[in-house]
Amino acid sequence: MSRGLFITLEGLDGSGKTTQIKRLSGWMQKRGVVPVITRQPGGTAAGDRIRELLLDSRSVGLAPMTEMALMFGDRAQAIAEVIEPALAAGDTVLCDRFTDSTEAYQGGGRELGSELVLEMHRLICGGLQPDLTLLLLPPLDKSLERARRRNDRVAEKNGPNEGRFESEQDAFFRRVWEKYREIARRDSERVVAIEGDLSIDDVHEQIVEALSERRVIAHSR
Amino acid sequence: MSRGLFITLEGLDGSGKTTQIKRLSGWMQKRGVVPVITRQPGGTAAGDRIRELLLDSRSVGLAPMTEMALMFGDRAQAIAEVIEPALAAGDTVLCDRFTDSTEAYQGGGRELGSELVLEMHRLICGGLQPDLTLLLLPPLDKSLERARRRNDRVAEKNGPNEGRFESEQDAFFRRVWEKYREIARRDSERVVAIEGDLSIDDVHEQIVEALSERRVIAHSR
Prior knowledge:
CATH superfamily of chain A: P-loop containing nucleotide triphosphate hydrolases
Shape of chain A: globular
Largest sheet of chain A: 5 strands, parallel
CATH architecture of chain A: 3-Layer(aba) Sandwich
Order of helices and strands of chain A: EHEHHEHHEHHEH
Largest interface: A-B, 28 and 29 residues
Oligomer: homodimer
Number of domains of chain A: 1
């Protein structure tokens, strides 16, 4: 059996990753491919607890280095429990965030730098890289606006805790956004950046095109 | 102000670290030094939650790599929140377990190897090394017996969850024990191994001698 495809979705909070994963999954299923969908942090029982810890207000004092190590702890578990077994079984994996997020948020946003995150990736994840990364990158001002709106809604529903990452300063999100662009330029073979102020349909269309162009999945519309 | 001393206690579960830390702390206080006492995992609010996750039965399925990353997440937080501020303020820090434990348990016991753990240490902890490590290493058969007894008591009190690490097979503990000896041989400048089937008083005496010989603290009995 041939190994499955590992596809990651990346982007700032509010960039529409969740919506696009649902659309993409539906599109794949119509073509006979049932993807394994997962997310980081979370996606395993241990990962959900790590996610809670990362988002919980009690952890507001988490050191950036702690945050990064926990992200990789979560990732190690997701790889062992979900991603590797699925890929080995020939399944397509759609993963909401992977190491690019850690590089963008902790490496860029928290200013730990790319080198440290990439070394951690090498140690913890070995050679595992996505076959394709879809980076949703609306203009920065739109991203900030959506992140703020999302934060308000989350805070309304769950109290202020869940909104931790979203409540960071604009300067933080600017660094994340810029790091994502840097990753896309550097790893242009792997990363397709979908930029601009696009509708949900337009983004979906570009995702399908990216898969088709790279022959990740036969584009049989 | 001169930087404080960083002293770690190491050894298998049941080797008497907790008892000896209390004795050593009392001995220091009589000499006018009030040490900052901490432990790993745990010792911070976030660390206590990481510790719970590591010990909780729900995490029995934790991948060794996850375990190691979480240990370093805990360590990063302890360094940022407790250890570095104390050392910078000139305080002596007594820490129950540090990277040697991760090397012995995850590197040796879980067979991830020393190199990976030491690279993680370099990335996460930077240049921080203990000034002195006191390794309590009773004979292997005694260590196993004590670990089993302790496991039974913990399981009686808290249910089987807390006893997770203690319930591992003897072969696991043998690998941990052997890795500790290897560390002591390799880092003989830093690590004082206190071996043999000694009484609590005898171990305390050897600890005090080790501190005195290395002039870590003036030995003014």
